[in-house]
Structure to design on (462 residues):
């Protein structure tokens, strides 16, 4: 242990900032104590990183019945086992560990544990998201109420717990509208309803699907689903060219209740509601970025968040209006954080801990958004539904060569695909089911977008 460094407690679980980037960058400046409440949610590679960069690792002991319980795999789609600890029990465990290790800040990358981390921090008089803010950020219905009470554009919504609620909501909202679980993440379960003929079947299928996704007992949403008006975007009006998605995300920091924007991330068009790529950072003009920043400020400050990272998603509407989708009291997932850090020279994980330990000035935070990218980087995923020659289950044998679709000024930093002979089910389609991954780099954002769309349009499965 480095005696002159502050001790940070990390609740380790799935999601958010990739662990390889998160742990190494915090460990350069702070001592990490890792608590793993759901050992079954941690892959072998993730666990190896935790061990490498932590001064102490505590796993929830109730999951270890025999020697086989210590075995970890690299095949964790969703943490499917039960975690039967109440909010109070998780909070008490965090408080116990914080006192044991003289902890100065607690954080997590996992959406499902944001609230207990915030409550424990508040009880220990440590800086955190705040109990009220975390609850609002974790419950999409409470979140939407806060958004609608701010200066941001109002989005009509209704609570939905059962089919009867959905029928009532459809009459009030009109078609099309979307329905999404109030407590999940990664666009899981987000469903578009186009007309009344599909209400019952789609709802029953959705309910059956979300019931398979186990969440910790500490997660207590105000309702199961939220129905919202469907926002129709217009990307060409915002970008002036075709090819970009009609939505963006923005990373930010809350410090003592004030919002500081860090960087905006462009996207390519979605498949349904599943994201396909992120382009760090945005190529939008300064005046258009200002509109996005203003909406993000309204959104995050309306939740009463205190000190935390934020990841806010919004729709780019006609007439340069901004429609808030949702926010999270944590950094974004995929490789948004590592890639944005590369192009802006920012140590994102350290920045968050600096805020939580009162080690960063307001002036520094105010100036980050003015940084200009040295280049543009995209993390880009291919899905089974990208293949025009695929409309059923297949055994994956690889992808045909795509080099002819990559612009000359675009560099492929990384490429990876799932193992051959993997059985792919056409209907098992979520953000976790990509079949291949590219990291692309260019000095020209438009060229990246052209390459991404060319590959997606022409991809062929062997």
């Amino acid at each position: 242990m480095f005696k002159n460094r502050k001790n940070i407690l990390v609740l380790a679980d799935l999601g958010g900032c990739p662990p390889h980037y998160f742990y190494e960058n915090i460990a350069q400046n702070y001592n990490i104590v890792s608590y793993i409440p759901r050992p079954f949610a941690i892959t072998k590679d993730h666990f190896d990183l935790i061990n490498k960069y932590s001064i102490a690792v505590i796993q929830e002991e109730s999951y270890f019945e025999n020697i086989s319980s210590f075995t970890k795999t690299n095949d964790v789609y969703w943490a499917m086992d039960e975690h039967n600890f109440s909010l109070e029990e998780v909070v008490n465990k965090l408080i116990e560990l914080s006192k044991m290790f003289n902890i100065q800040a607690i954080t997590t990358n996992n959406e499902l544990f944001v609230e207990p981390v915030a409550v424990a921090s508040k009880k220990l008089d440590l800086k955190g998201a705040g109990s009220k803010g975390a609850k609002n950020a974790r419950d999409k219905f409470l979140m939407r109420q806060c958004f609608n009470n701010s200066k941001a554009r109002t989005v009509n919504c209704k609570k939905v717990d059962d089919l009867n609620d959905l029928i009532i909501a459809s009459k009030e909202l009109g078609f099309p509208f979307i329905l999404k679980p109030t407590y999940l993440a990664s666009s899981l379960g987000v469903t578009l309803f186009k007309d009344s003929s599909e209400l019952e079947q789609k709802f029953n299928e959705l309910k059956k699907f979300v019931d398979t996704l186990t969440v910790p007992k500490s997660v207590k949403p105000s309702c199961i689903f939220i129905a919202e008006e469907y926002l129709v975007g217009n990307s060409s009006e915002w970008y002036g060219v075709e090819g970009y998605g009609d939505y963006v995300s923005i990373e930010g920091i809350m410090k003592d209740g004030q919002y500081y924007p860090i960087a905006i991330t462009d996207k390519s068009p979605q498949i349904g509601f599943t994201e396909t790529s992120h382009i760090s950072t945005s190529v939008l003009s300064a005046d258009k970025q200002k509109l996005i920043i203003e909406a993000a400020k309204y959104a995050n400050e309306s939740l009463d968040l205190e000190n935390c990272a934020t990841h806010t998603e919004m729709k780019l509407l006609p007439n340069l209006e901004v429609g808030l989708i949702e926010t999270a009291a944590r950094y974004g997932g995929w490789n948004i954080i590592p890639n944005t850090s590369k192009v802006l020279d920012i140590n994102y994980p350290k920045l968050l801990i600096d805020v939580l330990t009162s080690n960063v000035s307001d002036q520094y935070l105010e100036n980050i958004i003015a940084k200009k990218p040295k280049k543009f980087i995209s993390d880009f995923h291919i899905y089974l539904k990208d293949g025009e020659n695929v409309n059923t289950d297949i055994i994956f044998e690889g992808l045909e060569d795509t080099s002819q679709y990559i612009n000359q000024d675009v560099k492929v930093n990384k490429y990876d695909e799932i193992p051959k002979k993997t059985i792919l089910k056409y209907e098992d389609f979520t953000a976790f089911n990509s079949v291949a991954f590219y990291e692309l780099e260019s000095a020209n954002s438009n060229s990246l977008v052209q390459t991404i769309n060319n590959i997606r349009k022409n991809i062929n499965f062997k």
Q: What stands out?
A: The chain has three domains: 7-126, 156-229, 235-458. The chain has 14 helices and 18 strands. Residues 7-126 form a domain with the Rossmann fold fold (CATH 3.40.50.20). The longest helix spans residues 286-302.
